[in-house]
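Format notes (please read before filing issues)

Several people have asked whether sequences and structure tokens are stored in separate files. They are not. Every record keeps both together, in the order shown below: the sequence lines, then the token lines. Line labels are part of the format and must not be stripped during preprocessing.
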Amino acid sequence: MSGLRDKLLRMRSSAAAQAERLAGMVTEETVDQVAEVLDEEISSSAPAIAEESNELSADWEELNVRIVESTEGTFLVRESRYPLMHRHGIHRLGELEETQLHMDVFRKPEQTQLDYTNLLFLDLETTGLGVGTGNVPFMVGLAYLQEDVFVVEQMLIRHPAEERAMIGYLCNLLPSFTHLVTYNGRTFDWPVLHNRFILNGFRTFKWEPIHVDLLHPSRSIWRNTLVSCRLSHVEEERLGITREDDVPGSQAPAIYFQYLADGKPQPLLGVFEHNECDMLSLAVLAIRFGYLLSGGLGKQVALPSEAEELLRTGLWLERMGKKELAEPLYTLLTDHPQISPKCLCMLAERDKKCGNWERAVLLWQKAVQDAEAANWPDYEAHIELAMYYEHRTKELQAALSLAEEAHSIALRRHAGLRIQNKRRIELELIRKRIDRLRGKLQKWNRIEQAE
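Then the structure lines:
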């Protein structure tokens, strides 16, 4: 045994040296290099490590973890339980009970009612940034409602040999839930985890939950009103959550690599706390969207002060089948004191598709008026209104005036700039419209003179 232990220590020292060199300069490229180093050298020592995995040293006490044993081996679990009255930001966790019942838009056809206890929140901490086979989720964070508490369950593997045990545990747990809630989980968390199921030999495992990725509604609503749609930024700007002494997620791989190098687990506490906060924020964000879908805007959720956020909220609600909730927001927008010509045109485009020409025309007219006072005006409303006058009301002179004004604005916007192909095409299309309208007017004038 002593010979095997010495070999293990030599391999661990080699891996540690390489990990330390790379961990100090973690980037999108180097994290995958570190993962490969650890996979190749440390995983080869799995049998020897496994023999020493059944006891925890005193260094782990501060992390409040316990060992979980299964037929596949051991791994660590850290569990936190929050009462439903616990407030995270502007919402209580107990609000999840009522708001999730309104998220019927995510329900499977065969379901008659959404059971909120079947919602599972997921967030991973991984050794890499990609979704390839070299990216290992060293920490898997789960959260769910259980009777009168909100449970955050975090799994940690102390080395690659423990991954199979953790994956086996997840195989038994995940099928208990019908809905998976993530943030960017469609393109990252779930593909990464699914790959690990396959690589660890659980190829027959099948779980097909309804996946609710909250990144997509966040981008739909806040893409232009927030500097970033990262969860940490959304929670601070819209959920009233402020993190103190938080370990950024980008540093988590380096901290884990350092632990593998020196065996000291204390720095992992910061990663646990960061992941736990992510889980709580996911739940609060789900509460917010649940309120939006249940008509809580202006009640449980304050009305957005920015016109574009109000508009994008309405457009998202309409896409989710909640047109009756979106229409009052559109009505508020028509008299909003700070609505931009861009938002006016976005709402007008929506009305155009729905056949609400009366309001669409009013919105285009307001955008044209606003353009007159703007330092850097746009001409989208001019073109749309010109098309309406030409094809629907046959007011050719009004259409021509708008087209000529659009051409003048376009020339001013492009003045001094290199005329790219896209701009050249735009100008050519406006010029053709002007020529066509002038031709139509000349034709009508000849007909009138002849009569």
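For reference, the curators noted about this record: Confidence is low (pLDDT under 50) at residues 1-28, 41-51. The radius of gyration is 29 Å.
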